[in-house]
TrEMBL record:
<protein>
    <recommendedName>
        <fullName>YjbH domain-containing protein</fullName>
    </recommendedName>
</protein>
<feature type="signal peptide">
    <location>
        <begin position="1"/>
        <end position="35"/>
    </location>
</feature>
<keyword id="KW-0732">Signal</keyword>
Length: 415
């Protein structure tokens, strides 16, 4: 009996040691999203296709920096990145910040602050505050090394373009349809080079020159972010609407209430035209400008804008815009009144184009359709006044709102 009893004690002791060892090893395993290094999170984000990814940490917070280059919709892409960071990259018992870049220029940040004292800390998308404020750690975060740089990587973006006009009583619409591929590349932070060729596919009533393959946007653009939520974008080159010259845009978001923003724009351009690849240009420069304010109604993702403007013929006027933003489209109405011109208005919309996820393969040029396409309807059929231009092929009401923090927050909650 003693022998059997001794053997039982030995067996119990072995089981106890095994259980203690298992418990000890389990305690070494990190909780979901907690206490893990940022390096593995960065590597996972790079594998997903995010660019300019890095991280740093001090005694106050952990900071991730990234650029969404894998998902067509910024709200979706940022949400995917947040999910990964929540799963494997949150620090232990201190805040975490995610700074989102566009062409290496910081746009917004997402900030998560854990509730100290929770027995099982678990972050969700709802817990992240989205803002234009980058926090005090950006000065250090901007110096960190980043993986999967976007510099010198070429995108060939194919822009579908549709123009309609109703000037003949016996015909509903005259149509012009172009496919316009553009080479887009950045050589340094905030810089973007665009070289586009317009390829006519169908032309009914838009003239002989529109039937020829010819260059489109040829621009060099530079964007910088200044303190106090201010961005400046300067562009030189050949724009749409047969204008070439320079354009300068300033955008400022009110720090006290980020629903309010102000923007100003000034352009100095002259006329040009392409006859195939023969370039004809004028020398008379015309000044255009715009100055206005915006309000964003976050509950419904509605943007209201009021601007004073000067157009290409020198007429000064006022423009009002009301735009509703959705995940896959933006729809807006506008009204205009200028000196010596009849009131005009209409609507415009932009629709996101598939594929909604795409990934680069190293430095091999990536060919994709444009992120979205749209049409503006001129209800008053105004053909002479209210003329302006766009300085970049990708500039539209949908892309201009893609980094709005209220819109990004709504996408985090609803996707």
């Amino acid at each position: 009996m003693r022998y059997r009893n001794s053997n039982m004690r030995k067996c119990l002791a072995t089981k106890t040691i095994a259980r203690c060892a298992a418990l000890f090893l389990f305690c070494l395993l990190p909780l979901k999203g907690i206490c893990q290094t940022g390096e593995s999170t960065v590597n996972t984000l790079v594998e997903m296709g995010f660019e300019n990814v890095g991280w740093t940490e001090d005694g106050k917070e952990r900071v991730y920096v990234l650029q969404n280059s894998a998902y067509r919709l910024n709200g979706v892409g940022i949400g995917k990145a947040v999910d990964i960071i929540q799963k494997m990259g949150l620090p232990d018992k201190k805040p975490c910040r995610v700074i989102v870049l566009d062409n290496n220029v910081p746009q917004i940040s997402l900030y998560y602050k854990p509730i100290i004292g929770d027995s099982v800390p678990e972050a969700s998308r709802r817990d992240w505050n989205v803002s234009y404020d980058l926090g005090g750690t950006w000065k250090e975060a901007r110096k960190i090394g980043r993986k999967n740089s976007s510099l010198f990587k070429v995108d060939v973006v194919v822009y579908p373009e549709v123009s309609l006009k109703n000037l003949i009583i016996t015909q509903i619409y005259q149509v012009l349809f172009n496919l316009s591929p553009a080479v887009e590349v950045s050589f340094w932070k905030g810089m973007k080079l665009t070289a586009q060729v317009v390829v006519p596919v169908y032309n009914d009533g838009y003239g002989r020159l529109a039937d020829k393959v010819h260059p489109g946007f040829l621009t060099l653009q530079q964007t910088v972010r200044l303190p106090y939520n201010m961005w400046i974008t300067g562009t030189l080159g050949a724009f749409n609407a047969s204008r070439y010259g320079g354009d300068l845009k300033v955008f400022h978001v009110l720090k006290a209430d980020e629903r309010f923003s102000f923007e100003g724009r000034i352009g100095l351009t002259a006329a040009y035209k392409w006859d195939g690849f023969e370039f004809y240009y004028g020398t008379k420069m015309r000044l255009t400008w715009s100055l206005g304010t915006n309000f964003y109604w976050s509950q419904y993702n509605v943007q209201v804008s009021l601007k004073g403007e000067q157009y290409l013929l020198g007429e000064k006027g006022v423009r009002f815009d009301l735009i509703r933003h959705f995940r896959y489209c933006s729809i807006g109405f506008y009204a205009m009144k200028a000196q010596g011109a009849k009131s005009n208005g209409g609507f415009r919309f932009q629709v996101a184009l598939p594929p909604y996820k795409y990934k680069r393969k190293g430095y091999i040029p990536r060919v994709t359709p444009s992120k979205n396409m749209g049409i503006a309807y001129n209800a008053g059929n105004e053909r002479y006044y209210y003329k302006g231009f766009r300085a970049n092929a990708s500039e539209n009401i949908m892309s201009n709102n893609s980094f709005n923090p209220y819109f990004i927050k709504s996408e985090l909650l609803n996707f």
